[in-house]
Design brief:
BirA Bifunctional Protein, domain 2; 2 domains; single chain; alpha+beta; Rossmann fold; five-stranded mixed β-sheet; eight-stranded mixed β-sheet; 16 strands
Length: about 425
Amino acid sequence: MALTSRPRGTNDIIPGEIEFWLDLEEKIRTVCRAYGYKEIRTPIFEHTELFQRGIGDATDIVEKEMYTFLDRGERSITLRPEGTAPLVRAYIENNLGSGTLPVKLFYYGPMFRYERPQAGRYRQFVQFGCEALGSSDPLLDVEAIALPLEIYRACGLSGFQVQLNSIGCPECRGAYREKLVEYFTPHTDQLCKSCQSRLQRNPMRLLDCKAEGCQRIIEGAPVITQYLCADCQDHFSGVRTYLDELLIPYELNPRLVRGFDYYTRTVFEVVSSELGSQNAIGAGGRYDGLVEEVGGKPTPAVGYAVGVDRLLLALKGQNKLEVNLEGPSAYLVHFGGATKIKAAQTAHFLRSQGLWVELDHMDRSVKAQMKAANRLKSCCVIVFGQDELAKNQVVVRNMQDGREQEVVLDDLGQLSKIVGACGK
């Protein structure tokens, strides 16, 4: 095992790249603020049962992809593979539903799944999600769709599409499951092993299979919308009406289901033309039974999540990763000895004023220090020469227009103003 190689399925986000992440994160926070969503941060690991009960035993994540281990107290612990179940657990434990409803929350952080790594898909990845708990209003479903679309537009992303479906509620899904079992049973030998094992446990999971052989069979399967109860039909009609009224385009996809068992009624995906066959850049839906399943009171809820890695990949494909990488406010050039000490003192003060300041630590020549300032795109250079120091002065050179001025070294407030104004 090479100590200089990162584990498979992980990624280093290095300077020159992290700026794109920070810019996207700021856009996410800005949009969430406009919609009234507040941030929540949950632990990176949770009790394994939370995901087993919340996501579902028959899902790929629980069956194959979770990082689960026993801690020193012999408790089963799992690195979080998704953000909704931990958020719901936190909602219950911290009694967040005692105030004004709905409760609107968003999260942003690392998740972990043991998947086959590919472009935009890692075993440690960053996920952003927004969740609204406490209301069954169809307009809230539409808000969960509109919010991420606003983020995509803020990033300049185009070529995305909303796919929409309703998978009903537990009451109307019973008859649909029976029809699915009836349809798929004659094709059992043609199904992949995963679908064969799920046929009786959770036949709706077969509709989410991406295996080519299963896809051909799925094409002829009955669709859930033919079995929706009156309440679910009314709710889905309300969602579509609000989408139409808000001029949010969408495409009905009666085969669309989600990979987690907690979803009810509305489900949706946002797909991008930039990502090939693995084209989803976000998905979500309603999960009215999850809060109760985890141990809380019956609480309707709806949410959305996106893999930030995949979103950045889509943005890169459209050349939308444009961040102005600014350099330091000032680079302090010195000649060593007393000039270096004075430069260090000045840098210490300027940094206390919130200015980005660099100075030489390599004992380079003045010429080499000037080159370093240029490479860093420093807004100005402050030269601490022996003669200037004897007069208690420094020379400030604006690197954009080349103008120079002498500044009294004791007047650090004035020097701070001059440095701050450079580059503006």
